Give the backbone structure.
Amino acid sequence: MLSLKLAYKNLIGAGLRTWLNVIVLSFSFVIIIWNKGLLNGWNEQAKRDMIDWQIGGGQYWQKDYDPYDMFTINESHSVIPDGISDDIQNGLLTPILINTATIYPEGRMQNVLLKGILPEQKILKLPTDKLQKNSDEISILIGSRMAESNKLQVGDYFTIRWRDANGTFDAADAKVVDIFHTNVPIVDQGKIWLSLEQLQKMLQAPNEATMLITENNSVEKEEISGWVFRGHDYLLKEMDNLIKMKSVGGSIFYGILLALALLAIFDTQILSIFRRQKEIGTEIALGMTRWQVVRLFTVEGAMYSVFAAILAAIYGIPLLTWQAKVGLAMPEGTDDYGLPIAKSIFPSYSIGLVIGTVLTIFIATVIVSYLPAKKISKMNPTDAIKGKIQ
Amino acid sequence: MQNSQIISIKNMKKQFPMGKGKFTALKNIDLTFDRGEFTGIVGPSGSGKTTLLNVIGSLDSPTEGKVITLGESIGALSHKKAANLRNKHIGFIFQTYNLLPVYTVYENVEFPLLLLKMPASKRKKAVLDSLEWLGLTDKIKSRPGQLSGGECQRVAVARAMVKIPEVVLADEPTANLDAENSHNILKMMVKLNKELKTTFIFATHDEKVIQYLRRQVVLKDGKVVNIKN
């Protein structure tokens, strides 16, 4: 308590020197929290978008399906089990059939994945209701990236060539009925969405599917023979790894920032111990033990982080709250990064993030304050009283 | 040790390391100080006055011999016990005042009492009494930088006296003061010595101080060469 009281008086008494350190350290608090909050916000938004647009509540994969093996993808579908037809009708599951194909928009050629989906499904955000049912014409949905790269517009026709389940090549013209925009490039780039029934007909694979997407809130994931369930942990793993990599990059950035702030405190402490030798000697002469003086200097240093946290709260809370509300607009072109990035990222700050950051900075400050202060314990008080540099 | 005897020094030697050898600052010191003394250790610069004061005040320890201050053997004291002895029983006054620069006059004088963990109300009374003795009540909120040399030394005396110690060790207390301020300070010390029975031991070569002393221990080259009563 005495150390706290004296440290407080010393810091307030030191005036500008104290406030400069406090301001620099408070920047660290705010920038670290903002930076981590931004990554958290992106992570949450990206996962939410991936769930909404691509993975739902998890997916049952036909046992041979491997999204990274284009050679087996056309064989990785089987008949939808009878036992789940009620779930499909009730909107708890939606089957998707996948097959490779080649499209020829305006005479050019591009390999794509055809994805058959129920037009009436509500599990994924895709505007599948635009797909025409029971039509002889192949109506297709594409994403805005796909449309842009192939210069396609709503109402355009192009040729699709595919191989059916028997290995026979076939081709037909398809009409673009809608172009959707999504933050998840994987459902857009190189993908052609059409009605499940249509694709089953094209492939001569009636009632077959490659995967079954579950509704996000359905809790029970029952085992389906011949199908393997892939949950969020599995399907979002790549996204998690990407965010972790970004976090490491972010950590280096705020490590540098924190190091600069701590260096200022370390420097101040070293300078204080040299400049305040007379004061240290006097305090010892007046009855403080050396360790009490070490503690006083350490508390003084640690108190910078307390002041900085208070200052950071004063200007940081309104600033970060405002930023969380308006979001941070992403620059043009982020759509092409291949990552699920929204037009604006809304930082997300958790109590854990704030407390964790405050504690990390506090502990780091205590350590950099203690290290130079330890020197006091070796000082000769009679020389210190005279202010002799030791 | 008799009851009135509060400091006893027997065959004390103090050496400091100097290069590869040692420098002897004090040797063959045999002295005693009684309660209520107003004594000065006098001698030219480098004679060992400050070193002797530091050893008596437990800021330093003897290389050889025995120094007993208020019943505590200085050489055998741990840092903690030495700090405790200084905190409770010894007041220091320094040539350069050594006031804590960021504290006000009140806070400087209060400092030793904070270390003693004295209750707030008692502390306030003691600080105000001490400042009143020294005529500093109008300077309570001033900081050392705003005071004259004489005022700073009065604050230092108030700080040394506030806990009513048994011994006050004053190292060249008038060295930075003019004649008028020196006499004022010394008169106050004499008064405190009489009223509170506090022992004052000075390290000085200032004639202005010497004329107030009731006993002089004369040091030369680290040895006691004369004791004048």
Remarks:
- The mean pLDDT of chain B is 91.
- Residues 1 and 67 of chain B are 12 Å apart (CA to CA).
- The first strand of chain B starts at residue 5 and ends at 18.
- Strands of chain B lie at 5-18, 21-34, 38-42, 64-69, 72-73, 90-93, 167-171, 199-204, 215-220, 223-228.
